[in-house]
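Help!! Second protein's tokens look totally different from the first
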Amino acid sequence: MTTLKLQSTLIVLTIALLLSGTAIAAPGKSDELTVYFGTYTDKGGKGIYLGHLDIASGKLRVAGVAAELENPSFLAIHPTKPLLYAVGEMGNFQGRKGGALSALAINSKTGLLTLLNQKSSQGADPCHLAVDRQGKSLIVVNYSGGSVASLPIQSDGRLGDATSFFQHKGASVNRERQQGPHAHGVTLDAAGRFAFVPDLGLDKIMIYRIDAATGKLTANHPAWASATAGAGPRHIAFHPDGRFAYVINELNSTMTVFAYDPAAGTLQPLQTASTLPEGFHGANTAAEVVVHPSGKFVYGSNRGQDSIAVFAIDAATGKINCIGHQSTQGKSPRNFAIDPSGAYLLAANQDSNNVVVFRIDPQSGKLHATGESVSLPSPVCILMVHTP
């Protein structure tokens, strides 16, 4: 999320009508970020957890449960209103095949979340989501369902019934993981004109146009960009200058650099680099990719080698050079996030139930452990927003 959008959210949160809720911790200070943690709930977790990050000291604390939901793995925030949306990663919802989508109101005094409504994600195991730049629609991708859907966001923040749906079709070379489509992430470009959906099962990044007036999706022309056979593209992140995109490939532990044409919504591959250190031969799957707000660095997570790979970005070409690997001090870093100032990286270690704070060197981009760590059950997603 850009600094401008976070500032807009701050203004709205400050002036919005305070929703009812019971405080579970003292309200955050002005030098703190509110942190929401999405989790899996099959091993004792309760849902979405609330925390606070002190941006002066790097101290992280967990305040409690913000909302009790089933498997709210990934989260997204509305660009202008105090609203948060979560997937419910499950195969069946309300007696029908598919997962859940939850709309929640943020209590701007306590940070607690109030459930507004829920809708079907239109496919099994929704695993990622995004709100369009105008805040008119929510886009969700279903991993097991291999599909993409968009739902309108009503004026009160509730979700309407799906207005767009696309079923991906096909397979790729990995017989165990690519026997069919597996839509795995959705990210919008800076202008909000296009949505990009890496499909791990197809080795493609599917591209959709977003109708600015309605939020509905249509297939772009061309409808996709290709990844290397067997790569398994998972997530995509754009450079702040809008000229380049970075795709993390889960199955072969690589990161691919693409040149981006914002007028046509097209991606052209430039380079692919390993996310693993030389000489590592163990089992590994790559998971998350985040570009630093400065545009100087890009980071990717390794599950198995359990590290964050640090890459320097060439400003002219967008190409990357690996400059190191930082242990995440845990197992299976499913997700990580960088605060809007670019000072800290928070890594969520799903299989060791901890979130660890690292300070980012602004000159080299390298990570340094702060000693800050909190325990959470199966943390999957980290979402940081400014505290009002």
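Here's the second one for comparison:
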Amino acid sequence: MPPGSPPVVSRPTVLVDTRRRRTGATGRYLLVAALVVVAVSGGWWAARATIVSTADDGTVAPEVVTAEVQEVSIGRALNLNVTVSLPFRVSGTNMLEGVVTTAVDAPSYGTGDTVYAVGGQAVRVVAGDVPFYRELAPGLRGDDVMQLQAAMHEMGYLRAEADGRFGDTTSAAVRAWQKANGEETTGTVPLGRLIAVRHLPSALRLGEDIVPAALVSGGEAAVMDRDGAPTFTLVLDEKQAALVPSGATVTIDAGDVTWPAVVAGANPPESGQVTLTLTGPGGGSVCQDRCDLVPAQDTTTMPSTIQIVPTTTGPGLPTAAVRTNTSGQSYVLMADGSERSVSVVASGDGLAVVDGVAVGEKYVVLGDRPAQSEPERSP
């Protein structure tokens, strides 16, 4: 919904009964036609409209239109894109030399997945905080060995828990892994074939130099990992920003899920634009524990709905049907001629949600009290 659009309302179909006597002047037919146009343009009177044309004494009586109370929803929302910014850091440096033969573009990577290959040699990722800086072979000890063992255990090649010591069992697990991947079964892991990232599965980015057919010589930034939680902002012009109050609720469409957010603050206007910052409802991350759904890009956009005025649902009728007596009390003239005291809960776009009437009850939309039928008289 573009900025400045009218409130979002629920509008049932219009049903209007225009049956009337065929007597009367041309001007009276025009009045009936005008009433029909008004009812149809209102777009929601789902009841019978009664046109009272001529009183028994031959005088013209006021036109009266009645309708049934309907359930309506009144609110106001804007549909705008949220900007998502994701910080990255270099997690792995290319240590191979040759031509890049594969560069995998995946939304998410898991333990042991190939991210790229140089000269047909696959480079894979495992979870860990320690960069792989040497060939991993029997007899070595260290945190890098423990990261390798943890990956072998997770993938089902190593039964024992990681202990940081590269022994025969670890070597056998590596050989089984290499065989499953169609690689030479050496039982060792050459330098440059593994890259450690902080957690998996995760969305990763490849360095600018890691593209198919590119010639690399080693030392290039190869794999980028997320460096903190993504930030969510709304970048609006000043007129749009003026419509969005602090604390307004925002629903972000992330494809598989939707994330609730709130407007937490606003930066001073710059070049005619205002940046609103968003947080989760409790002040935490908007994406909660599903930040892996954010694309691995510096910035991306996601559609969102900003609730400017909270939606209120309840018995509704046109605001013109809510009248005020001499005491200032709001009331609705019911179809039986009685006055029903009401209170307006919400209003917008010519409609009002009110307390005091029930869905299905008939009331007077236009005109004064309906004419009361008189009992038949005996001849």
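Reply: Different proteins will give different token patterns, so don't panic. The mean pLDDT is 84.
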